[in-house]
Amino acid sequence: MDQKLVREITKLVTDLVRGERKREIANEQTWRVKNTKLLLKNYDILKEHSKDIDTDIDRYLKDVFDQDDLKLRSIAGYKARTNKMMEYTDLMLAAYRSYADKRDDATRRRYYIIRYLYIEPKKLTLIQIANRFGVAERTIMRDQKEAVKEFSIFLFGIVSIEEMVG
């Protein structure tokens, strides 16, 4: 093969690999944002589910179940993991708030949109939030999407940031 043909094939393969990697990254980002939104939408249910769970599974099982029952052990494990996930979520919400408090009004508003829509016991509607901040409902809808993406970075860390700039 001549050098020109080798360069063309190499470029074609490189472009195909690069395109495939971009699609993989886009799918990962979509997955993270989707799961972040799912977590936020079900925050109350998950929080209630994980309430009063002893995360020391063995101690929990000794009090309630026969140690050899693998199915019940698995259920207790799910509850314990849910508890840890909710502790982590609350920690990341606090980190997001700290981040937002140091930024501009729009960033603070995005944090509070997540609080008012998903976290607070008494949820607010988009219109109520828009009125509270003196902006249009469309602004709140746009900010909601951006807030979920931002919070996703707090939940998933550096991988999310690398994919956003990559």
From TrEMBL:
<protein>
    <recommendedName>
        <fullName>Helix-turn-helix type 11 domain-containing protein</fullName>
    </recommendedName>
</protein>
